[in-house]
Structures are given as structure tokens and as C-alpha cells.
Write a structure and sequence with these properties.
By secondary structure, this protein is an alpha+beta fold. It folds into two domains: 2-178 and 326-352, Ribosomal Protein S5, domain 2, CATH 3.30.230.10; 182-320, 2-Layer Sandwich (Alpha-Beta Plaits), CATH 3.30.70.890. The protein has twelve helices and twelve strands. Helix 2 packs across helix 4 and helix 3 packs across helix 5. It is globular. The two termini are 30 Å apart. InterPro entries: GHMP_Kinase-Related, GHMP_kinase_C_dom, GHMP_kinase_C_sf, GHMP_kinase_N_dom, HddA/FKP, Heptose_7-P_kinase, Ribosomal_Su5_D2-typ_SF. GO terms for molecular function: kinase activity. Residues 80-162 form the GHMP kinase N-terminal domain. Belongs to the GHMP kinase family. Keywords: ATP-binding, Kinase, Nucleotide-binding, Transferase.
């Protein structure tokens, strides 16, 4: 039996940071995002021997674990092994993983891979998990089981796909799909430039700093988070109305608010790239993810988009083509020996459900 999964990466336009504890529980968060045609991939095939073999192209790791060690979530490939532990998978399998964007890219690649792994085990073991359950389980594995710092938006973006306004509170998460006219989506693509800054950076230190600034009530930290929430709702309004120039200018306002929320999110090198883009005709932009590196998104006058792209490349960036996609995580069987997947055992089902 062979199972394959692909989960789309996302572009977060505004609201990142408001989905991070403790702001989320105390004030509620909101994020505007969309999935793109860049993916995290996972494959699983059965093997006659016990234990699990995992190959990850992104981390250049090829590891084998016996049944007595695969559920230990310390060391390499801890995220993958934490998913296996939740599902109590003790059969002999080979798992192969790769992604279209490296970890630390700002496109949500780590959380998207976690969703891909949850979907992979769900498909293989024959569990019914809805999109909300998959997203929440992936969040729990990352943030609670492993203690990885971060927000809550990426798991939901990967599970649901498309353009969404996602609302977060202590009680629940609500995904609101946006009904955009097709021409608005195509026109938005026509105005956007996605540029790799040439560097990646783990987000954990940046998120720790953001949370500490919030807890210490440092000047501007709370106000900036409130402003990002307000701008997120304005951006949503601009999108559904097809007012794209207004959307581009709001991106610039959000860029400034993010710097106020966390000054370390936009280092000098990225600030310089952003200045180059603005001077060449970009109306606004966004450093994706927690910041510090990864991808920079720019909204441009379509007549100047080629000038912005050329200037970014000359300044050391790398412009990358992309398109928006309207689907979330997808899974399929490549081959079935018995015609249908095996049922999941009650023990594994008990472990896999979100708490």
C-alpha cells in the first residue's frame, strides 16, 4: 500500500502575531491568508520489517527507527516522530518527505508538513478527521507535544486552502472562506511579486522576543497588535470589493505595524530590499512569517512590476513565480492490495483525536 499527500503552503497577508498566545486568548486574533501552488509532500509505503524508515530531503536526513525508539520525540525528525506517536503507528513503513520551500521560509512550511503528516496517517489508517480536527491536531502536536513556539494560522491554512479570514479566540477557531471574484484573484496575482530574500531564519527566537515585548507591555507592542487586527479586516474588505490598490497601500501600513510589534522581524538587509522595491514602484509589501528572512511579498503597479522584479534581483533577491490555489491538503492511494485501507485500532484513534 502506498499513500501520498500534498499540502499547500500559504501567504499570510496580515494578522500574523495576533494568533500567538497569550494575545490570542486575551484579545482574540484574526489573520488573512491564501494558499499557493507550493507544497509540502509526504509519502508512505509498507515494508516487511518492523520499525519506521524516514527520509527527509529538506533536512538531508535518512533515518531508521525501531519500534522501541520511534516514539521518542527528541533529536532529529522530532516533528514527524511526534505525529507517529499520536497515531501510535507501530507497523513497518517507509516515509518520504520534501517541500517546495525550505524551513524558515516564512511560507508556513513546518506546520504545513505537520498537517501533511497528519493527513498521511489519517488516510493510511482509515480514520475520519475533518479539516478542523486535522488543523487542531497538528497545532497540538507542534505547540503542546513538542513545545515549538508559534501561532495557529498555518495549520488551518494548509487544512482548508484558498483565501480565508481566520478568527482565533480562547474558545474556538473559525475559518471564513472569502468568495472572491475570479478576476480579483487573477488580478491580484498580476500585481504581486514574491521574492526570496536569500536567507532563512528559525522563527522561534523572534516569536519569543515578540511575546516577551507583549508581556512586558513595551511601548507600542500591544498597540501594534491591535493595529494589525484592524488592518486585517480592512484588507479583507478591500479584497472582496476588488479595491486592489487600496489593498497594496494597506500592505505597507501592515509592514510598518509589524516592525513596531517586533523590531527584529525586519533586519537591515530586508529593509534595504523593501526600500529598493518601493523606490522601483511597489505600493506595499510584507515580510512573510515571523520575519528575519525568507520571502518578501510586494504589491506593484502592473506597469512597474518588471522594474520592481529587476531591482530586487540586482539587490540580491530571487523572484519566484507562484499562483493561488483554492484547495487544502489532498491525499490519495497509489496502490491498494486489498481494495480498501485498514481500519484504525481503537487505541490509536484515542491517541490521535485532538484533546
Amino acid at each position: 500500500m502506498i499513500v501520498r499527500v500534498k499540502a499547500p503552503l500559504r501567504i499570510s497577508f496580515c494578522g500574523g502575531g495576533t494568533d500567538v498566545s497569550p494575545y490570542l486568548e486575551q484579545h482574540g486574533g484574526v489573520v488573512l491568508s491564501a494558499t499557493i501552488n507550493k507544497y509540502a509532500y509526504a509519502s508512505l509505503s509498507e515494508r516487511p520489517e518492523d520499525g519506521v524508515a524516514i527520509q527527509s530531503l529538506d533536512y538531508d536526513v535518512d533515518a531508521r527507527y525501531g519500534v522501541d525508539e520511534v516514539f521518542r520525540t527528541d533529536g532529529e525528525l522530532s516533528l514527524v516522530r511526534a505525529v507517529l506517536k499520536r497515531f501510535q503507528l507501530d507497523r513497518g513503513v517507509d516515509i518520504f518527505l520534501h517541500s517546495d520551500a525550505p524551513p524558515g521560509s516564512g511560507l508556513g512550511s513546518s506546520s504545513t508538513m505537520c498537517v501533511a503528516m497528519v493527513a498521511l496517517l489519517k488516510k493510511y489508517l482509515g480514520i475520519h478527521l475533518g479539516k478542523y480536527e486535522m488543523a487542531e491536531l497538528a497545532y497540538e502536536i507542534e505547540r503542546r507535544d513538542l513545545g515549538i513556539k508559534g501561532g495557529k494560522q498555518d495549520q488551518y491554512a494548509a487544512a482548508f486552502g484558498g483565501f480565508n479570514l481566520i478568527e482565533f479566540s480562547a474558545a474556538q477557531t473559525v475559518v471564513n472562506p472569502l468568495r472572491l471574484e475570479d478576476y480579483v484573484v487573477r488580478e491580484l496575482e498580476y500585481h504581486l511579486v514574491l521574492c526570496f530574500t536569500g536567507r532563512t531564519r528559525p522563527s522561534e527566537g523572534l516569536i519569543d522576543y515578540q511575546v516577551e515585548r507583549y508581556k512586558r507591555a513595551e511601548a507600542g507592542a500591544l498597540e501594534a497588535l491591535h493595529e494589525l487586527k484592524r488592518l486585517t479586516l480592512e484588507m479583507k474588505d478591500a479584497l472582496v470589493r476588488g479595491e486592489l490598490d487600496r489593498f497594496g497601500r494597506l500592505l505597507h501600513d501592515a509592514f510598518l505595524a509589524k516592525q513596531q510589534m517586533n523590531p527584529r522581524a525586519v533586519p537591515d538587509e530586508i529593509n534595504q530590499l523593501y526600500r529598493v522595491a518601493r523606490e522601483s514602484g511597489a505600493l506595499g509589501g510584507k515580510i512573510l512569517g515571523a520575519g528575519g528572512g525568507g520571502y518578501l511579498l510586494l504589491f506593484c503597479d502592473f506597469r512597474k512590476k518588471h522594474l520592481v522584479s529587476r531591482a530586487l534581483e540586482q539587490a540580491g533577491g530571487k523572484v519566484v513565480d507562484f499562483e493561488f490555489v483554492d484547495h487544502g491538503v489532498q491525499s490519495w492511494f497509489l496502490k491498494l492490495d486489498q481494495g480498501r485501507p485498514p481500519d484504525m485500532t481503537p487505541r490509536a484513534l484515542r491517541y490521535a483525536r485532538p484533546r
